[in-house]
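Progress against Task 2.4 (sequence-to-structure conversion) is shown through the following example record, which the project officer requested during the mid-term review.
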Amino acid sequence: MIYPTGGGAPKSTVDDFYIDKAYICQQPMTTRERTEEMADHPAPVRARNAAATRQAILEAAKNRFAREGYDGASLREIAADARVDAALVSRYFGSKEELFVEVLNCGPDATELFQGELSNFGERVADRLMDDPDRHDGLDHLLIMLRSASSPAAAGPLRRSMRAWFHDPFAAYLGGPEADVRARLAGDLIMGVAISRAITEDHDLDAEGQVCLRRRLAAAIQAAVEP
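Structure tokens generated for the chain above:
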């Protein structure tokens, strides 16, 4: 599923906290951290595998934020879902805000859309929006955005993540006059259609209507990105 966040190579910040996606998802603990963890938790629930523990926490956080939004999810609940001690969540990821940013930064990668010719961009994206069978991960991140958008604490991280992982690369791909505006307009169209499909997969249209929708959607997105 196309989703305007996640992926790519840029870094984003929360105050002075720097996020690197490869570090977030893969970086093992240091020997000192592993020793401290074993001393503090002599009878752990799950085996002490740093990468697996990080991934379990990230997955639990993604699910909680998708269901309850930023304000409704707690670090204690996320730890319980991941079957780890609550102290480990803070040790691995710091604050709740920092964990939220890392969940956003591990989202689906939309930058592959920006690698083809601009002349058929609308058609390519319309096909992806209408046909993509693997949209569940993107839907989770879409729900995170929607259910966290009203939170003052989540507003800044959401805005920075959207810019870093989607709007800025999109504008760079488009180039030319008013690239930021064109990227925003096309991005809003993409998000709107993604939300509609999440509610009704066939858009409440028969086969002929879906063909017509695909054609008009391709034309609308193409018009939005053209200089």
